[in-house]
Amino acid sequence: MRILIDTNIIIHREANRVVNEDIGLLFNWLDRLKYDKCVHPLSIEEISGHQDENVVKTMKIKIANYNSLKTESADDQLITKIRQTDNSRNDFIDTSIVKEVYNNRVNYLITEDRGIHRKAKYLGCAEKVFKIDAFLEKCIAENPELKSYQVLAVKKEYFGNININDKFFESFKQDYKEFGDWFNRKADNVSYVCITDGDVKAFLYLKQENSDEIYKDIEPPFPQKKRLKIGTFKVTSTGYKLGERFLKVIFDNALLYDVEEIYVTIFDKRDEQLRLIYLLEDWGFKHWGIKTTSNGVEQVFVRECKPRPNIQLPKLSFPVVSRNTTKWIVPIYPQYHTELFPDSYLNNESPENFSENEPYRNAIKKVYISRSFNRNLNSGDLILFYRTGGHYAGVISTIGVVENIVTNIRDENHFIELCRKRSVFDNTELKKYWNWNKNNRPFIVNFLYIDSFPMPKVNLKRLRDLNIIQNAPRGFEPISNAKFEQILKEARANESYIIH
Fold first, then answer.
1. Is residue 28 scored above 90 in pLDDT?
2. pTM here?
3. Which of 79, 154, 178, 330 has minimal CB crowding within 10 Å?
4. What domains lie within the chain, and their CATH numbers?
């Protein structure tokens, strides 16, 4: 397996001072799986132009540890078209790098560069281009026996019960000289934390602020609004989608407290901070301005709590969805249901059995595989998931929103690559599912997990009594607006996120 590593990842990996622990975990997996670590010749040119002379000297020695590509594939019409939009030498090099995975000279490309990911999407090879966390997820999913963590659970915990001397907090201490005192003063406050093998992997502190809050150090000034402040937020890349899991916690709290906006102030001088900024931007946060303090200048990002629903890009308005779309009901078997929706366990299931030790459990973005006759789903459509089980045990449990569907799947390998990042199925099950009926190949529904309905859930008997449905769904079945509203009422759904 040949893995092409982007320039910046190599620089951070081989620098004298390790500034990104996530990269160490990535290379540990590459070594354990005995993958060939490849470097593009133009990456060496980029490294030679690095502003830090010590980095350049170190690189020239250590670059020999990588397999340099000996040849470069030819440009075709699509590559030529991209080159016409390249505005710099760096843009040209980025195109040359992504071209090698596009032309199948290497199996995968690992890069944090958002521009390269956009080019890969345009070229139709996005499933072969990974960010660090996504590649770790792939490794974990395909090699469960090599998982580093047995359990990765997010839980509420008092500050006073968390070890402030954990190396996880070192970056906060470096950025905020008062961090230690602030942390100790919060001893009786609640945070959200993920601790595994005694080490902190993720941490989140949220603060509710009323409309009379003073923001004298933020420019431009905030207008008066009820807000939820993301006070402290950091996630270490583990391959378990902890970033998305914590985002779900943030959005759930915003709805709970009925605030108008969510905001965060964050430095942009570390890779981990930039990656967090990119994650927030991907989910609709927008740059507002700056916050100036004695520690320096932080960037301020703001997100409306209940923005206008974005039909084409639902995650930009998540968890808000529109009522003015098509509604579907679809079945999901019990053995996959709580795996995919860990917040939607039933009375006879224990939540402790569903700690978030699989990537798809933590993810907001999920995959549903179907052979349904109905395949005309569109972005923004709403899905009600029916957990199968018969007259009494079969229940409507969960609501989601469609991001997109994929029907033009080339072959088995393409199918596995498309599903791998988000599916509850392992590779063996995916192969079996693909080949089960060659006359009716499956298609893929990428959707966002919005909410799980409270207990007790509406069962098939109640649905029949109300004449909503008479038989359990066997694929994607459309339901009318009136029946959809009836189900929401019976399920006692939180309708604050479903707007016109």
1. no
2. 0.80
3. 178
4. 2-130 (3.40.50.1010), 154-304 (3.40.630.30), 317-499 (2.30.130.30)
